[in-house]
Amino acid sequence: MREKQKKTAPEIITPSAGDTSLPKAEFLGKGVPVFMAGNGTVDLLRIEFVFPAGQVMEDVHMAASTVSAMLTEGTLHHDAASINDLIDSTGAALTHAADKDTAGLVTVTLTRKLDDVLALSAEVLFSPSFPENEFRMLTDRRLQAFLTSRQRTSVIAREAFYEALCGGRSPYGRITTEDDYRRLTTNNLREFHMKHYRPDNMYVTVAGSDPWKALPVLEKYFSGNGADKWKKPVIPSPVLETSAPGKIFRDVPDSVQSTVRIGWKGVIRSHPDYQSLQVATMILGGYFGSRLMRTIREEKGYTYGIGAVAGAFHNIGYITIMTDVANAYRDQTVAEIRKEIEKLRTIEVSEEEMTLVRNHMMGELARTFDRPFSVADAIRGIIDYDAGADYYTRLAETVRSITPARIMEIFIRYFNPAEAWEIIAGSR
Q: How many separate domains does the chain show?
């Protein structure tokens, strides 16, 4: 009988610091910064225009997301059908989105179609017409989707968490209602757009095989428009009204399963502990081999998936654990989560487990900086959240050097059970 060999973790293989450095900006005529991420062989470019035009900037709730959604519904020169025809004829893709802090337009195009596609991009960004009929149809569709979402336990639990973290009057914690859809007008949209969608209030990322080809075309359509010289956009820091920790239950009648969400207040991206928190949450529930996946999914069979994340808005950070379970297992699931956290607060992680986590995270970093589109996403995260140009270099160093003692310190400091919100959304 062959003797069973002792299992050992593989050697850590990490990218160099140079692999995690970010490119310097090029500048258009009036100082609009353009960040280039070049790699790959496919003749394809992804160009993203980013504005500080998220929910945090709203005077009227839902203006940010609705302006973003209406950009391709009509301009001063083209109606919605014509815009769709132009997009189809170039083989391009135009997508728009607004989140809590920012909004933007992403254009994906073949290099040879740059002029046509960027001309259209400039038009939808700076000359939308907000036609009343398209606005009404869009609002009706979004309202129906919203009403349907009231039966999704994951949506209800997420809302409850951000309300507890930030307060119901904060743009980060505000819960949308049916009335919000009904009171919004096209005048609200025009006012929001005029205030925030300006060349002097944006930056651009270009990613692809040869992003520098986009510069002269960007200069043609985005360098001026009468704007003053670019200044780094300022995202406001709204007043937060964090609620006391404790148990929160949201009734979702007739739901066959519950969403369990446990969370804490965290730190913003520029805080010295933020990157250590990334490692700690990875160990807890950040990848398939994490503590929670092994215990809750593999051993107990309570859920198909469970995750832990440390993230941040512009002026507040958060830590959250989330999973969906059958109603019968929700109490057991909470108990097992608490057990795993207590272990990490009292017993140091083994070097074998640390090595596995380091390899996983360094592999993710290597993949990020090997693909131009993900480099562009990394650039955006750094600019939007003032994380520092060397953020990923520092993250790589943290992953390499963090010790089991430091991991335990992080869990003791940020994962105190007495300071947690324990949220369950499901049927009684």
A: 2
Q: How far apart are CA 223 and CA 118, in angstroms?
A: 12
Q: Both tokens of residue 190?
A: 């025009």
* Both tokens assigned to 260: 């369990």
Cβ within 8 Å of residue 217, ≥6 positions away = 114, 115, 118
- Is residue 410 one of the residues assigned to a domain? yes
Domain extent for 373? 246-426
What is the reported pTM? 0.89
Same domain for 254 and 161: no
d(CA 21, CA 18): 5
Rounded to an integer, what distance in angstroms lies between the CA atom of residue 218 and that of residue 53? 21
Residue 234 lies in a domain: no
For the chain (length 428 residues), average pLDDT per consecutive 10?
Answer: 38 42 75 82 87 93 96 96 94 93 94 95 97 96 95 97 95 93 96 93 90 92 65 78 95 95 96 97 95 94 95 93 95 96 97 95 89 87 85 93 97 97 95
Question: What Å distances lie between residue 58 and 100, 102, 193, 401, CA to CA?
Answer: 10, 11, 11, 42
User: What is the DSSP pairing of strand 93-98 with strand 257-265?
Assistant: unpaired
Tell me the CATH number at 264. 3.30.830.10
387 lies in the same domain as 310: yes
Same domain, 64 and 195: yes
Nearest of 387, 299, 401 to residue 22 by alpha carbon:
387
